[in-house]
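Can't attach files on this board, so I'm pasting raw text. These are the components:
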Amino acid sequence: MNDEKHSIIAAMSIRPRIDRESRTLQVMFKIYCRNKHGNQVELCSSCQELEDYSLDRLDRCPFQEGKTTCANCPIHCYKSDMRARIRAVMRFSGPRMLLAHPILTVWHYLDNRRKKPFKPGVSAETSIK
Ligand code: SF4
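---
Top answer:
Structure tokens for the assembled complex are below.
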């Protein structure tokens, strides 16, 4: 699915922020595994394990639609080894996303400008201490 179709679906979703980030993660894993492990269609088992873990973390994120990017998160819910692995994926794939997925890249940049997350239904000032 291209970025435009995904943007329309995300806008219709009740979790557009989470859906968009899920899509961004999947794109980043594809870029990483294709370039690092030579897999054109499916992810290798190691990348698939990390993608599943990341999507699960996202699904359970306490901030949901109020989240910032995980890099700016004060909680960092990832296990330390998984965090090191996802950082490597982000570092590699982030700069390579712009040409192939410009809309997702711009959204990711905008999401990254939110430095503090908030919990939906709780004011931004009181949700994170
Ligand atoms: S690291 Fe923070 S923002 Fe990312 S999924 Fe975990 S709790 Fe949510």
